[in-house]
Amino acid sequence: MPSVKSREQGFYYGQTQTLTANTFTRTGYLFQGWANTSTSETKAYDDEGSYTYSYTTNKSLYAMWAENPAEWFDVTFIDQMQDTEVANPEQYQHLLTGSEFTFPTLDDKTPPDSGGGEVQCNEEHYHFVGWVLSTELDQLGTTATIHEGGSKASVTANAMYYAIWATATIQ
């Protein structure tokens, strides 16, 4: 919940005046105008709009806000071995620009067609290496950045990361 701030502006009964320009800010939101109540979903006045004071007591106006879609992003993690999205999707959705997130960690696994269970000698298994941005998949082994599970990054745009696996044979 944003903190409550106020500002007074003097009006004369029955006279129309221009509302003072809004100077309040709310991170991740755009100012929409002024409402007559704190719970109203209907804008009563534009910023710097005309207002005629017709009350015998003080009148409060309330800032209305709408999310700024340019400042909110989603981060998606795909495990192509399972062909599924991993981690808690809600935890990585609707993140504000600059928000820090943690890369999930995946457990090592045996190939899906091997029957799972314990890794046997001479059986191939997969070791989780980390995550790579979808736009860098073609750069694996050269300039792609691999993010280890548990490491942190800041969100600056919508992003899709793919799990990177290394194969190993247990001897």
Overall description:
- The structure is a single chain.
- This protein has strands at 16-18, 29-35, 50-52, 62-67, 72-73, 75-79, 84-85, 95-96, 100-102, 124-133, 152-154, 159-169.
- With 171 residues, it is mainly β.
- The mean pLDDT is 82.
Features:
mainly beta, four-stranded mixed β-sheet, 12 strands, 171 residues, rod-shaped
Summarize the structure.
With 171 residues, the protein is mostly beta strands. The protein has strands at 16-18, 29-35, 50-52, 62-67, 72-73, 75-79, 84-85, 95-96, 100-102, 124-133, 152-154, 159-169. The protein is built from no helices and 12 strands.
The helicity comes to: under 10%
Mean pLDDT: 82
The spatial strand order of the largest sheet comes to: 7-6-12-10
Helix/strand order: EEEEEEEEEEEE
Taking the alpha carbons of the first and last residues, their distance comes to 57 Å
Proportion of residues in β-strands: 25-35%
Largest sheet: 4 strands, mixed
Shape: rod-shaped
Q: What's the total helix number?
A: 0
- Which residues sit in consecutive blocks of at least 5 with pLDDT less than 50? none
Output the radius of gyration. 27 Å
**Structural class of the secondary structure composition?**
mainly beta
Tell how many strands the DSSP assignment holds: 12
Helix/strand layout:
Elements lengths: L15 E3 L10 E7 L14 E3 L9 E6 L4 E2 L1 E5 L4 E2 L9 E2 L3 E3 L21 E10 L18 E3 L4 E11 L2
